[in-house]
């Protein structure tokens, strides 16, 4: 009986450790960050904190990590400019020459971002990209882009700064909890069906 209790206690400790690791590791899973290397282009997709995504892509461009920027995102207001155009305008104001910017102005979700960017990549013969999005969205974007561009396409993950989400404290606020759980559900859907949102 004593041996059984010891084994049971050991199993409970192991399971508890695994559960704690999974809980605390969720944020790091959602937000993979790769070592930067020079690529053919930097792509930033619109969405949560689009301004931050744009600013980070521009910073990477100015630091010389790629000679071209790609902005992807449809208009929130059908009567206004696309998100991609608004991002490009901000980049030009920050000193990026318009000839170094490519636009995908029709993408309304992550799958369409990847498809639109793939067309630009194929047209120009780009062979590598830095992918910029919000940290909680990085994993899903990576999965989706690899499914469209090919699993071996060189894609470097590099998130922008998000004011309300931290991968080390994803549970800290109701907002970050909601975003995290939503991303997990969307990743599960993508992996199960092959269709991203």
Q: What general form does the structure show?
A: globular
Total of DSSP H or I helical runs spanning 4+ residues: 6
The named CATH superfamily of the domain at 33-163: HUPs
Radius of gyration: 20 Å
Strand order of the largest sheet: 3-2-1-4-5
Task: From the 3D structure, determine the CATH topology of the domain at 33-163.
Answer: Rossmann fold
- The name of the CATH architecture of the domain at 33-163 is 3-Layer(aba) Sandwich
Q: What structural category do the secondary elements indicate?
A: alpha/beta
Averaging pLDDT over every residue, what do you get? Answer: 88
Distance between the termini: 53 Å
**pLDDT under 50 segments (min length 5)?**
15-22
């Amino acid at each position: 009986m004593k041996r059984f209790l010891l084994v049971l206690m050991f199993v409970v400790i192991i399971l508890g450790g695994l559960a704690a690791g999974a809980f605390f590791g969720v944020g790091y899973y959602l937000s993979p960050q790769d070592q930067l290397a020079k690529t053919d282009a930097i792509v930033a997709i619109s969405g949560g904190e689009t301004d931050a995504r744009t600013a980070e892509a521009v910073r990477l461009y100015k630091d010389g990590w790629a000679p071209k920027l790609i902005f992807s995102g449809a208009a929130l207001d059908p009567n206004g400019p696309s998100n991609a155009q608004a991002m490009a305008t901000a980049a030009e104001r920050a000193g990026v020459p318009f000839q170094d910017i490519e636009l995908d102005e029709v993408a309304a979700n992550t799958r369409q971002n990847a498809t639109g960017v793939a067309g630009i990549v194929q047209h120009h013969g780009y062979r590598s990209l830095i992918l910029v999005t919000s940290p909680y969205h990085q994993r899903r974007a990576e999965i989706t882009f690899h499914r469209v561009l090919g699993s071996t396409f060189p894609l470097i993950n590099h998130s922008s700064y998000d004011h309300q989400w931290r991968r080390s404290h994803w549970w800290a606020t109701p907002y970050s909890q909601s975003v995290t759980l939503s991303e997990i559900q969307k990743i599960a859907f993508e992996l199960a069906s092959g269709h991203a949102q």
